[in-house]
TrEMBL record:
One of its GO terms (cellular component) is plasma membrane. The keyword Membrane applies. This is 4-hydroxybenzoate polyprenyltransferase. GO terms for biological process: glycolipid biosynthetic process.
Length: 286
């Protein structure tokens, strides 16, 4: 029984819950990180997105079960491997989504609406958009933006459109990098249908332009955000982080699982930590 519950938990992909830290963007950049009431609310929103995204991952794995069984890594997922049945997965997903939406609307109506939009967006992606070229990556990026918006409306703090655009570009970069890595697999188009429309050269161009745009937009944010102009001191960390990720993508053939790429590379982890510390020091004037 215990081992089976572990498999059900694995089906929720807890390793990917790190993506939900984007809900903290509003509280950090609004200068309210040490406001305990706001911090408690954001922690609830973080847990909420772990639940709602976990349920969505289960639904996605059920829809993709046949393709996942041909994937060298995804075939070991609980749904694809048969360790968790489709029925068990559906029940788990439905229960989690209901609980998530109840929590969301109890935080406030706007959080509930954003979560409902996120759930709808994920389902539309899994059912229809995943097989489309370019649009699939845009949907992934939009999911990150919704996380940021959820954190913003939860505490009633507006975010700079420059920062929101930076998040969307960064997420788009990660999604395109994942597509590039997936092209390396044998019979890639059987694993993900729309990969037959992508080419390495086309992805290279989109990745390059997205990286450049991310650097430019983030730089503009540091100049125009209204925070201390010293925030521009964080730009080198962003540039290094993007270039380091490119190195891992092109020279080490990583990037297929962004959560692993980001957390397992020591130089990248140190860079992110330094960026975070500099950001806090500058915004909160420690």
């Amino acid at each position: 029984m215990y081992k089976h519950l572990i498999e059900v938990l694995k089906a929720l992909r807890p390793k990917q819950w790190i993506k939900n830290i984007f809900v903290f963007a509003a509280i950090i950049y609004s200068g309210e990180l040490f406001n305990l009431r706001f911090l408690r609310t954001i922690l609830f929103v973080f847990i909420l997105f772990c639940l709602i995204s976990g349920g969505a991952y289960v639904v996605n794995d059920i829809i993709d079960i046949n393709r996942d069984r041909m994937h060298p890594v995804k075939k070991n997922r609980p749904i694809a491997s048969g360790k968790v049945s489709i029925f068990e997965g559906l029940i788990t997903a439905v229960v989690l989504e209901i609980i998530s939406l109840v929590i969301a609307f109890n935080i406030n109506t706007l959080v509930g609406v954003v979560c409902l939009v996120y759930l709808t967006e994920v389902l539309v992606y899994s059912l229809y958009v995943k097989g489309e070229i370019i649009l699939d990556s845009f949907f992934v990026a939009f999911g990150f933006v919704l996380r940021v918006i959820a954190g913003s409306v939860a505490i009633g703090k507006n975010l700079s459109p420059w920062l929101t655009t930076t998040v969307s570009l960064l997420a788009l970069f990660l999604a395109l990098s994942k597509r590039k890595n997936e092209l390396l697999f044998k019979d890639a188009s059987k694993i993900r249908g729309n990969l037959k429309f992508y080419s390495q050269g086309f992805l290279d161009q989109m990745i390059s332009s997205t990286v450049a745009s991310t650097i430019v937009v983030y730089s503009l944010y540091t100049f125009l955000s209204g925070h201390n102009k010293k925030l521009m001191l964080t730009i080198p960390f962003v540039i290094y982080g993007l270039y380091r990720y490119l190195y891992l993508l092109y020279d080490n053939e990583k990037g297929g699982a962004p959560e692993d790429t980001v957390t397992n590379d020591i130089p990248l982890v140190i860079d992110i930590m330094l960026w975070f510390v500099f950001t806090l020091v500058i915004i909160y004037k420690f």
